[in-house]
Amino acid sequence: MSGFVFSQKPISIESGEGSTLLADDGTEYIDAGASYACTPTGHCHPEVVSAVREQVGDLIYVQGSYPVAARTELKAKLSALAPGGIENVWLCNSGTEANEAALKFARSATGNAKIVAAKRGFHGRTMGTLSATWKPKYKKPFEPMIEDHVEFVTYGDSDELADVVDEETAALILEPVQGEGGIHPAPEGYLETAREVTEEAGAALIFDEIQTGVGRTGDLWACEGYGVTPDILTSAKGIASGLPLGATLVADWIAEDAGPHGSTFSGNPVVTAAANATLEVVVDEDLPGQAADVGAHLCEELEGIEGPIREVRGSGLMIGIEVKRGANRVLRDLALEHQVLALPAGRTVVRLLPPLVLTESEADRIVAALGEILAPQSKP
Fold first, then answer.
1. Cα–Cα distance between 288 and 266 in angstroms, integer?
2. 158-166 long-range contacts, Cβ below 8 Å, gap at least 24?
3. What is the C-alpha separation between 318 and 217, in angstroms, rounded?
């Protein structure tokens, strides 16, 4: 059933190393986002590969009720690395599952049903998280949703947050930087307001860090750059270098009454071994710092391009370039003419989510490619 879930690109990938991917015809590509932010340490980092190989040789699977060294180590590691006060860890297989658990935990702990989410937000494709996702195109084929208790607010509007979050609210779920919605960082003061209104209402504040976490924005967790700690933080994508893992980190008051929830493959030993190695590399090599430095350089150079660019926005190596022509046309030319793979974030935004090991010289190659594509004289 080729193409049933993903449309097939005309490039067949054979291997990868660092920030590059190699096609089966020998062509080398810079991975500037085609791996959905899932490779913070780069493709096939030796320490991650070694950890996976060792764990596969010892134990591939045993269910989560039995302690396993890799799983226990990851829970301890995430507890230590989490923003203060949210040290309880639940493991799953993906970002949508992590967010689904977050919504369930919040409802159980508060006894309330109402969920507040943001316009342009994206939180997953299961029925609960899809109901809290804004864009109609993701939902229409599966309607009716379970949206009776979901209310959407304008992202960045603090006054609207204060009006909508009330004593009937179980949770407010926000991305510190909206990803799928076009790369929109939270405006100054917005997350602080989110923290204040949820505390006043007795609701849980959930930060969806599926895309922003594990160093991508220049901090280990994007919320740390804002100085705001949620009650629940979700992570996935890059946490295990592309192997399927999600994590929901919760405060004590949530954990105490989270309700019955489970997952067959929660904390798979092989995947948690990959995650332990990934987090060690991210921290030991200060990849958040590298993301901050290379991302700042990349943004500065992008802003200097003469051409149809409306805005460059983002944080660290999570960058959106809003163009006046269609993003898909730009992405096609990047891939086929310049061997740079990137992503859209809506019809007019080119999204860059490269591995955090991206170098300045690789960043300059991305800029040069975009400059050539977008130069007024390059296209009729």
1. 27
2. 158/189, 158/190, 158/193, 161/116, 161/190, 161/193, 161/194, 161/197, 162/193, 162/197, 164/116, 165/116, 165/197, 165/198, 165/201, 165/203, 166/114, 166/201
3. 6
The answer to whether 357 and 364 have CB atoms below 8 angstroms apart is no
pLDDT in tens, 296-315: 999 999 999 988 999 999 99
pLDDT in tens, 191-226: 999 999 999 999 999 999 999 999 999 999 999 999
C-alpha–C-alpha distance, residues 271 and 254, integer Å = 26
347 burial (CB, 10 Å; 0-12 / 13-18 / 19+) is exposed
Q: Is the dihedral of CA 257, 258, 262, 266 positive or negative?
A: negative
Total residue length of the chain:
380
Q: How far apart are CA 246 and CA 226, in angstroms?
A: 23
Q: What are the distances in angstroms from CA 181 to CA 19, 147, 318, 321, 350?
A: 25, 19, 13, 12, 12
Q: Are 114 and 149 in contact (CB under 8 A)?
A: yes
Q: Within the chain, where are the H helices?
A: 46-58, 69-81, 95-110, 127-131, 136-139, 158-164, 190-201, 222-226, 252-255, 269-284, 287-303, 327-338, 360-374
299, 77 Cβ separation under 8 angstroms: no
Q: How far apart are the first and last CA of the chain?
A: 39
**Domains with residue ranges and CATH for the chain:** 13-44+286-378 (3.90.1150.10), 46-284 (3.40.640.10)
Model pTM score: 0.94
pLDDT at residue 1, as a whole number:
37
| C-alpha triplet 148, 149, 155: angle, nearest 5° | 110
Output the six-digit token pair for 14.
Answer: 């054979």
Q: 214-270 pLDDT, tens per residue?
A: 999 999 999 999 999 999 999 999 999 999 999 999 999 999 988 788 889 999 999
Question: What span, in angstroms and rounded, lies between the C-alpha atoms of 182 and 319?
Answer: 9
